[in-house]
Amino acid sequence: MQGNLPPEAQEKIEQLQGLQETAQEVAMQKQQAETNLEEAESALDELDNIDEETTMYRNVGELFVETDYDTAEDDLEEKVDTLEIRLETLEKQEERVQEQFEDLQGELEELLGGAGGGMGGPAGPGGPGAGGA
């Protein structure tokens, strides 16, 4: 089908495909950040159940190194804060990519002369029905 499309349309389709890949990468990074955040918050919650005098160890590469309660708590709180910021950034990036995708899809539809233009519906990077009322 792409062989008989104007070069501008082919270029926009390639850009759409690139945005789709970007959206998938951002979604994977967001999922990983969410998982890491849940783990860090869970560990932080567990600290509440541990006596402050208990010997603790933290993983440093291949080793476990002894650490004290306050250091472990500070490290986990910092990790949670960093992951929350990372998650916010990824959510904003996800929104920008979705907007770019929708804009580009609209441009392509205009190029192809109207509604649908053979694009197969509203399945953007967020999937069917994503982001819209």
Average predicted confidence as pLDDT? 87
How far apart, in Å, are the first and last alpha carbons?
31 Å
Rough outline: rod-shaped
Second CATH tier, the architecture of the domain at 30-113: Orthogonal Bundle
Stretches with pLDDT under 50, minimum 5 residues: 115-122, 128-133
How is the biggest beta sheet arranged? 2 strands, antiparallel
What structural class do you assign from the helix and strand content? mainly alpha
What's the count of strands? Answer: 2
Strand order, sheet with most strands: 1-2
List keywords for this structure.
133 residues; PFD_beta-like; chaperone; rod-shaped; 2 strands; PfdB; mainly alpha; Prefoldin subunit beta; 63% helix; two-stranded antiparallel ribbon; single chain; Prefoldin; Helix Hairpins
Model description:
The protein has helices at residues 7-47, 69-111, and strands at 56-60, 63-67. 63% of the residues lie in helices and 8% in strands. The chain is rod-shaped. The protein has a domain at 30-113: Helix Hairpins, CATH 1.10.287.370. By secondary structure, it is mainly α. The longest helix is centred in the last third of the chain and has 43 residues, at 69-111. The chain has a two-stranded antiparallel ribbon. It starts with 6 loop residues before the first helix and ends in a 22-residue tail after the last helix.
